[in-house]
TrEMBL record:
GO biological process: biological process involved in interaction with host
Upper taxonomic lineage: Bacteria, Bacillati, Actinomycetota, Actinomycetes, Mycobacteriales
Name under which the protein is recorded: Phospholipid/cholesterol/gamma-HCH transport system substrate-binding protein
Pfam families: Mce4_CUP1, MlaD
Cleaved signal peptide residues: none
Residue stretches making up the Mce/MlaD domain: 41-114
Alphabetized InterPro entries for the sequence: Mce, Mce/MlaD, Mce_C, MlaD_Phospholipid_Transporter
Superkingdom in the source lineage: Bacteria
GO cellular component: a single term: extracellular region
Transmembrane region(s): 12-30
Residue ranges of every copy of the Mammalian cell entry C-terminal domain listed in the record: 121-279
Length: 344
């Protein structure tokens, strides 16, 4: 009996250990795939006309940073209601707009939250529904399928680069749009049968155009606004042309003035440098003048105090010729020392 129980115990222990390891591995895999949000969260919801490709567990991002995850997607009166959670340190506002964006070329999507400028911005209470209209998912599969004739002429690296450019362009990246247009043009030039390629692209993109036609009202508004802008520019074309001509004439005249004044400006700069050097060389004399000037100016009230004439008495006079000073008091010796009352 003991031998039989011993033979069962070893397989039982091994099976138990295997089960525990399997449960641990399963938990690790589940936690990795679930990608739960760290910390406490607040729940919100938003509506989409088309939420194709978005699934529960997908990321919720603000400015490209993951701040939450999608919890549930359900149909509500013909629209897709998306419930999601956001970390409670990330605030959602009344001017927050939701949009479904492509995360990569394999079709994985995420929910992007952005703030719309010029709208009332107040914190949105947890459990509320976003007030602004959302941006629906764009079926990039149809778009990429439309470029199949081009992809057939490319290698894998070029296909990935062009596909990524198309994806970013249709998500609002103007730089990627310019790059994509340039790439398509270059590829069309390099393709021998370019007419056939372009024809196939146009035919295949008809599905995309039908999707865009559903937003015809918005496109119409944009076209009308552009038409009004062009009309205004056209009506003021004469004024614009005159302004451009005046600017050209002014610039030409200014260039002539500078050309004629170049020598004078150079001479002025040279003279300014000479004057500065002279002031530096005579710095000690200027210092002395700064000391004597207040004394000299202090006697002006005495000179002009009697009326509109100079009231000056020469009591003593010494003369210097060049740097040679005549003997002091020589005029007093010659003319005597009978000074006026003021000088006594």
């Amino acid at each position: 009996m003991s031998a039989a129980s011993g033979s069962i115990r070893k397989p039982l222990i091994g099976f138990t250990i295997f089960g525990l390891v399997a449960l641990l591995v399963t938990y690790v895999i589940f936690s990795t795939l679930e990608r739960s949000v760290s910390g406490s969260t607040n729940s919100y919801s938003t509506f989409f006309t088309d939420a194709s490709g978005l699934a529960a567990g997908d990321d919720v991002r603000m400015a490209g940073v993951r701040v939450g995850r999608v919890d549930k997607i359900e149909l509500d009166n013909g629209r897709a209601r998306v419930e999601f959670e956001v970390q409670n340190d990330q605030q959602v506002y009344t001017n927050t707009r939701s949009a479904i964006r492509y995360q990569n070329l394999i079709g994985q999507r995420y929910l992007n939250l952005t703030l719309v400028e010029g709208r009332d911005s107040r914190p949105l209470a947890p459990g509320s529904t976003l007030e602004l209209p959302s941006e629906d998912s764009f079926d990039v599969t149809k778009l990429l399928a439309g470029f199949q004739p081009v992809f057939e002429t490319l290698d894998a690296e070029q296909v990935n680069a062009l596909s990524q450019g198309l994806l970013e362009a249709f998500q609002g990246n103007s730089v990627s749009l310019s790059y994509t247009v340039a790439e398509v043009g270059r590829l069309a030039e390099d393709t021998a049968n370019r007419d056939v390629v372009l024809g196939a692209i146009i035919n295949n993109l008809s599905t995309v155009m039908r999707d865009l036609s559903r937003q015809g009202g918005q496109l119409g508004t944009v076209i009308e606004s552009m038409s009004a802008l062009i009309a205004n520019l056209n009506s003021n074309s004469a004024a614009f042309g005159s302004a451009v001509s005046d600017i050209g004439r002014t610039a030409s005249g200014f260039a002539d003035v500078l050309s004629r004044s170049r020598d004078s400006l150079a001479d002025a700069a040279t003279n300014g440098r000479i004057a500065t050097n002279t002031l530096i060389q005579n710095g000690s004399k200027l210092d002395r003048m700064a000391v004597d000037a207040p004394i000299f100016l202090g006697h002006f009230p005495m000179v002009l105090g009697e009326g509109n004439y100079l009231n000056i008495y020469a009591c003593d006079l010494d003369v210097a010729i060049g740097d040679v000073l005549l003997p002091p008091g020589i005029f007093n010796k010659i003319g005597g020392t009978n000074h006026s009352v003021v000088c006594r």
